[in-house]
Amino acid sequence: MAANRRFVQEKSVSVPTLDCDLGNSRVKWRFGRHSGAGQFDDKDCFRQIGVARVRIASVLSADRTHLWARRCEQAWPGVAIDYPKVLPLANGLVPAYRQPERLGIDRWLGIAAAFRPGEACCVISAGTALTIDFVTRTGEHLGGYIAPGIELGRKALGESTDRVRSTAKSLFEAQLGPGRDTQTCVEHALRLGHVGLIKEALYRYESRHGPVGIVHLTGGNAPWLSGLLERPTQLHENLVLDGLTIVLP
Questions:
Q1: What percent of the chain has pLDDT over 90?
Q2: I need a labelling partner for 98 at 20 to 30 A (CA). Which of 73, 157, 165, 204 fits?
Q3: Is residue 6 marked as binding?
Q4: Is residue 172 classed exposed, middle or buried when 0-12, 13-18 and 19+ CB atoms within 10 A define those classes?
Q5: Which domains are seen in the chain, by residue range?
Q6: pTM
Q7: What is the pLDDT of residues 220-229, one digit of tens each?
Q8: Which of 202, 245, 198 is nearest to 221 (CA)?
Q9: Phi-psi domain of 56 (left: phi exceeds 0; alpha: psi -120 through 50; beta: other)
Q10: Phi/psi of residue 58, each to 5°?
Q11: DSSP 102
């Protein structure tokens, strides 16, 4: 491991920093406070920007993450590459896992970005997987739930059944009522499964710990979910990237 790769939480001076969120289905990035974020077209960005530091949050394999880091080192010789770790934060946020390193870094960064001391927090990421996490008002992470995302559900049904095929790519027109053809039945069931799981998880949390204020949503399926939960929600386009700036200032 190169000497300039740091695995510690430390305060640094302001330097040109590229933040990368290496997800299962796409890569998101942010460079500087005013540059925006989106899918990372590495060929263009590697040529056009000068970077002194890269913060990488990755759920990819170690080999694929290492390959990405090597490309950064080749593009910007001497660049410092930082990886966040799941550790208690100064604001009181504490991970629930007995082995914190086994908690997905994307979940931890999302929690870190959403949590505010004194406010109970529910963070939902609806992408390749559906994850739901709860944090008490004092910062105690209570754990959460992980379920297959919409696309994985479609894929599983398509691969495991001969006569069930779901080809629709958009759920925005779907309703929660019973379907009247096989494709609609599949699409509505997948959506209803997400909504039902989230509502039941919230009910169980609030029955024991009291009300959650705003539900924080991120991921590709977050927009349509926000209109179906029947409670205040806040959409976040880049919650993992926001968390990087908190965990690795």
A1: 60
A2: 204
A3: no
A4: exposed
A5: 5-82 (3.30.420.40), 117-237 (3.30.420.40)
A6: 0.85
A7: 899 989 989 9
A8: 198
A9: beta
A10: -135, 135
A11: G
- The active-site residue out of 82, 106, 133, 242 is 106
Contacts of residue 121, defined as CB under 8 A and 6 or more positions apart, other chains included, come to 111, 114, 115, 134, 135, 212, 213, 216
In the prediction, which pLDDT does 172 show? 45
Strands (E), the chain: 5-6, 17-22, 27-31, 37-39, 53-58, 80-82, 121-126, 129-135, 141-148, 215-218, 233-236
104 in a known ligand binding site: yes
21 is in an annotated binding site: yes
Give, rounded to a whole angstrom, the gap between the first and last alpha carbons of the chain.
Answer: 22
Consult the annotation and say whether 128 binds a ligand. Answer: yes
59 vs 20: CA distance, rounded Å: 11
The pLDDT score that the predictor gives to residue 131 is: 98
Q: What are 30-52's pLDDT values in tens digits? A: 887 645 445 555 555 555 678 89
Q: Is 105 annotated as a binding residue?
A: yes
pLDDT tens-digit readout, 188-201: 888 899 999 999 99
Residue 208 pLDDT class (50, 70, 90 cuts): very high
Structure tokens at 6: 């740091």
Query: Ramachandran region of residue 195, left (φ > 0), alpha (ψ -120 to 50) or beta?
Result: alpha
- Cβ contacts of 17 within 8 Å, gap of 6 or more: 31, 32, 51, 52, 53, 54, 55
163 labeled part of a ligand binding site: no
In the annotation, is 242 catalytic? no
The chain-wide mean pLDDT, for the chain, equals 85
- Band the pLDDT of 162: cuts 50, 70, 90: low
